[in-house]
Design a protein that fits this description.
This protein is α/β, with parallel strands linked by helices and 202 residues long. The protein contains 6 helices and 6 strands; from the N terminus they run E-H-E-H-E-H-H-E-E-E-H-H. Helix 1 crosses helix 6. It starts with 5 loop residues before the first strand and ends in a 6-residue tail after the last helix. Bound molecules: inosinic acid.
């Protein structure tokens, strides 16, 4: 870690998200690591809120309480909440994406979309960073469509069935991590955060 890099603790149990953020923010001088309490990512309660921002706000408060009084207290804390929103399903699974993924999986979504011609969808990420007594929020959106079948083993979650409009017909599961970060909801939200934190890109 360079002396001019900034350490950020990412409060998430999802190691895919942590490594996407860590790889992406390296170039802006951030050193992102997973927040661990007693060697484990803390179980932050996810409020059943419709707005991703509300979820982020609540998780930041919970994470701050957990580091309060420890030597981690001085580090910025990052929290992110994201989801897949499918037009034909009125935005489902949206804030419930993680739960739906474990319950019905990608096959379940493909079944719900069988014979549907409007396959438009988007990923959205809300990101919050608590730093030096202030909160910074950013959002990123990635528009695309739901594929007819799963393809690719990269990424995580719904990536094998999500085809971003910005690339030529491949699912996110078929993109390299760098390709995905350039166009993804998370990459866009992270880029915005790096600007708001005013660190020059290297
Ligand atoms: P969270 O941990 O509540 O924010 O859940 C986010 C869920 O949305 C994940 O578990 C995935 O199901 C889905 N998701 C969010 N971002 C992505 C992504 O970049 N690729 C694939 N699925 C994603």
């Amino acid at each position: 870690m360079g002396s001019d890099s900034v350490n950020i603790l990412f409060a998430s149990g999802n190691t895919h998200k942590v490594s996407e953020a860590s790889n992406f923010l390296k170039q802006f001088g951030f050193n992102v690591s997973q927040l661990l309490i007693g060697g484990k990512p803390p179980d932050l309660i996810e409020p059943q809120a419709e707005l991703l921002e509300e979820i982020v706000q609540s998780k930041i408060s919970q994470a701050r309480e957990l580091v309060s009084g420890t030597k981690m207290e001085e580090y910025p804390i990052m929290v992110e909440d994201s989801g897949l929103f499918i037009d034909h399903l009125a935005g489902f699974p949206g804030p419930y994406s993680s739960f739906v993924e474990t319950k019905i999986g990608l096959d379940g979504i493909l079944r719900l979309m069988e014979g549907v011609s409007n396959r438009e969808a988007h990923y959205r990420a809300s990101l919050g960073v608590y730093i030096s007594g202030s909160m910074i929020f950013s959002e990123g959106t990635c528009r695309g469509k739901i594929s007819n079948k799963a393809a690719g083993n990269n990424g995580f979650g719904y990536d094998p069935i999500f085809i971003p409009h910005e690339l030529n017909g491949r699912t996110c599961g078929q993109l390299t991590p760098d390709e995905k970060s350039l166009i993804s909801h998370r990459g866009k939200a992270l880029k915005e955060v790096s600007k708001l934190l005013n660190l020059p890109s290297k």
